[in-house]
Write a structure and sequence with these properties.
mainly alpha; about 375 residues
């Protein structure tokens, strides 16, 4: 509700949202999915010729009812994120006590980066809903003695949806199969059935709405070990985003202490979970492996966002273990310090976020005047 009530009627310029909407428009009008008018420069491929159809399929009903309404389309993504938070809270309950689970889910849901990110039209928020719901159901299917058919079907649909929304969802398939190998044979059969059904569903949908997957694969022609090193160094900088640029810039020494403390808690929580590896841990490792080896790493905050929940989850797990070790009084004191540090960082960052408007948004009169001038001056058959 907080994110919906604070949505801004302003959207930053970006090519991704335009292509998502044009793909959704083609779905509604019954036009060829990839025929958007977007001209791909083969010497500088920035976007694929057509995005995966998951998000355009979600946007299609809004386009059909309201046309190009950025505020309603962004609201849809926010609703997906709210549903994800409920799923994430359910996942947290498998790891930490209820109060800590609620606090961790709230910390992620109210993160200043998420607040700013909600005013874009990207696929990450819907992807997180499908991805974590799939992880939760796959984990349940793999740890249940006799998983029901509805459970397996639900896992398959969500697994396919995650891949159809973001191609990086492909990581879920090997993660699920590798996790099954570590479990009894019944888990292998159930997981294989889920993966096969999800693959068939995704293939069928893409037959009707074919995305340009080749562009993503083509990026790997620029793979190099130097590129991996660069990606690792860039993704290490997300600590500034997680803690907040306000804290890291104003109090760098304190921010360093917070970074080290958080890294230790995350490491403790992750290593503790490795004692009983599940599909969640394998997905976490696989996703980071793909980020580090993928030649494109310029938007670290955005690309790493889908694994932020697991960073928070392992932080909470580490915090829970430290609380147990310190005892009731020491644990409460330590938790209070953590809560205070998070609150100070969030308040400082929100003071910046609230004071900085989106520069030259699409909805601005100047932007609309430019669109109108283009319509009048450029012939329809110019491209």
């Amino acid at each position: 509700m907080f994110l919906l009530l604070t949505m801004r009627n302003a959207t930053a310029w970006d090519g991704d949202d335009a292509l998502y909407i044009m793909n959704a428009r083609n779905i509604v009008l019954g036009l060829p999915y990839a025929h958007t008018g977007y001209i791909v420069n083969p010497d500088n491929v920035i976007n694929p010729a057509a995005y995966p159809p998951g998000l355009p399929l979600l946007l299609a009903p809004i386009y059909w009812l309201y046309g190009v309404s950025f505020i309603k389309m962004k609201a849809l993504c926010v609703v997906c994120f709210a549903a994800f938070i409920a799923v994430f809270c359910r996942m947290l309950l498998l790891y930490v006590p209820p109060i800590l689970a609620l606090a961790t889910a709230a910390a992620l849901g109210f993160h200043p980066f998420i607040w700013d990110f909600k005013d874009t039209l990207y696929s990450e928020l819907p992807f997180m809903l499908a991805c974590y719901a799939a992880l939760l159901l796959i984990h349940r299917a793999q740890t249940t003695l006799r998983p029901s058919v509805p459970l397996l079907l639900g896992a398959a649909v969500l697994l396919a949806a995650a891949y159809l929304i973001r191609t990086v969802g492909i990581v879920l398939f090997p993660a699920a199969l590798l996790a099954a190998v570590l479990l009894p044979k019944r888990a292998i059969a159930a997981t294989f059935a889920v993966a096969a059904a999800a693959g068939l569903l995704a293939w069928t949908v893409q037959r009707f709405f074919p995305p340009d997957i080749g562009t993503y694969v083509g990026y790997f022609k620029d793979f190099s070990l130097q590129g991996v090193r660069t990606a690792v160094l860039r993704y290490l900088e997300i600590k500034r985003t997680l803690i907040g640029s306000a804290a890291t810039s104003a109090r760098p020494h304190i921010a360093l202490v917070l970074t080290v403390a958080a890294a230790l808690l995350i490491s403790v929580g992750f290593l503790h979970r490795l004692r009983r590896v599940t599909v969640v841990e394998i997905f976490f490792i696989g996703y980071w492996a793909l980020l580090f080896t993928y030649p494109i790493s310029l938007e670290q905050g955005r690309y790493s966002l889908p694994v932020w929940p697991l960073i928070f989850l392992y932080f909470a797990t580490g915090l829970s273990l430290v609380m147990q070790w310190l005892g009731r009084r020491g644990g409460r004191l330590f938790t209070s310090l953590v809560f205070g540090a998070v609150l100070v960082c969030y308040v400082a960052q929100f003071r910046i976020e609230f004071s900085v408007p989106i520069p030259y948004p699409i909805e601005a009169p100047e932007s609309r005047a430019m669109f109108e001038a283009v319509r009048k001056e450029v012939p329809r058959d110019a491209v």
